[in-house]
Amino acid sequence: MIVQDKTDSTASKYSAASELRDLRSLTYEEVSGILTGWGHKNYRTKQLLDWIYKKRVCSFDEMTDLSQELRAQLLDAFRMQSLECAQEQISQDGTVKFLWRLADGEFIESVLIPASIGQDGKRSNRHTLCVSTQVGCAYGCKFCASGIMGYRRNLEIFEIVDQVLSVERWKHAQLLESSEHSEHTLPNGQALVNNLVIMGMGEPLANYLNLTKALQILNAPWGLNIGARKITVSTSGLVPEIRRLAEEPQQYHLAISLHGATDDVRSQIMPVNRKYPLAQLIDACEAYQKAKGRMIWIEYILIDQVNTGLEQAHALVGLAKRLQCKVNLIPYNPVGELEWKRPSDRTVAQFRDSLHRNGVRVTVRMEKGQDIDAACGQLRLKTEQKNKLAI
Ligand code: SF4
Question: In Å, what is the CA distance from 9 to each residue of 14, 327, 347, 385, 388?
């Protein structure tokens, strides 16, 4: 594991500019409306957005083909404040965990999961980024580090978008360091990140409007151009928002963090289940599926002595068959402060086999980055605790 720690309890690039709007929260049409309203030709919109999303610059000064006048107007009206990398941890398996410091001093995380070897034995070019949507989380799942320090705030649109841009810039800096490339972008203008899972810190659907607009920007050809089918939105089970997402035109995948296949077990570890019990959740999933086709899968973290019994496996078979969806089993990645344990390999195999025998498509997803603080919220939790001690 390689760790680069740039945290201290006070350092942050606060700026008066943080009160201004950020261009990375706006759609093409909104930017175009502003520029033409200032009297500029519409082609300036594409030039400006190319600087942001294709060349990924961090300041208006670098946008050298825009007039001085336009750059001055942009500087007056908008901010360009990028996420500050407070720490990065690089796992032996290539997983990279980023701890970002926001302008108000809060921390969030993103995790870059590298290409792996596919079933055909070839290395896939998939680079997945796991993105956060809130600082902390209000949903209080008992096994989750993100819930421990409670909810602080929703991320703004640009704070979601900039997690992807910042990772692209990080990769670009690495390439420059190794002197392989000297352009602003990866070879052939390609981006590194081509798959997104919205599964980081926070409940994505609790920040619905900012999330869906950020996804629009990440998906747009003028933005980061990541296909909707390469974007997976995860939820702990917010029923009204699942139904609302089903109405959106984009074909996002939906992942349900189930983690319990009966109401009693699920409510024990996921308080959200008391508000939206399984019957309501599965109905909403069916509505999503009807609107989008087979675009749902179930995530099921296996926690020793909690949800690994064969009666849970049996109930899970029923739910998965009803939704005709795939199940990802994830052996729990322990969080130091919490009592929950990872089950034995034998228990994991038994659980998997009982699903498989009953005709459910199932995979066991080993958590990447075992040698770093890869569990969601773990790195932020440690950093905040360290900073508290330092005050
Ligand atoms: S698992 Fe997700 S919804 Fe539950 S507390 Fe953690 S971040 Fe929130």
Answer: 13, 41, 42, 10, 8
Structural element, H or E, at residue 317? helix 310-323
One domain, residues 146 and 29: no
Ligand 1 atom at minimum distance from 144 CA: 6
**Which of 85, 88, 109, 144 is the catalytic position?**
109
Same-domain check for residues 157 and 283: yes
Distance 324 CA to ligand 1 centre (A): 25
Point out the ligand 1 atom lying closest to the alpha carbon of residue 145. 6
Name residues contacting ligand 1 (CB within 6 A): 137, 139-141, 144, 146-147, 201-203, 236, 257, 376
Considering only CA atoms, which of 209, 226, 230, 205 is closest in space to residue 217?
226
Q: What's the gap in Å between 231 CA and the centre of ligand 1?
A: 19
Is 367 known to be catalytic? no
> What pTM, to 2 d.p., does this model score?
0.90
Task: Please give the tally of structural domains in the chain.
Answer: 2
Instruction: Verify that 381 and 359 share a domain, yes or no.
Output: yes
Is 109 designated active site?
yes
- Cα separation of 202 and 279, whole Å? 24
Q: What is the mean pLDDT of each run of 10 residues along the chain (391 residues)?
A: 56 48 96 97 96 94 95 94 92 92 95 74 83 96 86 97 96 78 54 93 97 98 96 97 97 97 97 98 97 91 96 97 95 85 96 97 79 64 62 46
> How many beta carbons lie within 10 A of that of residue 43, not counting itself?
10
Same domain, 349 and 317: yes
Q: What is the CATH number of the domain that holds 366?
A: 3.20.20.70
- The alpha carbon of residue 27 and the mean position of all alpha carbons in its chain are separated, in whole angstroms, by 20
Residue nearest to atom 7 of ligand 1 (CA): 202
- Counting DSSP H helices and E strands in the chain, the numbers are 13, 15
Ligand 1 atom nearest to CA at 234: 2
Contacts with 334 (C-beta within 8 Å, 6 or more apart), sequence order: 340, 341, 342, 375
- One-letter identity of residue 384: E
Q: Whose CA is nearest to atom 3 of ligand 1?
A: 203
Task: For a ligand 1 pocket test, name from 108, 109, 139 the mutation site with the most ligand atoms within 8 angstroms of its C-beta.
Answer: 139
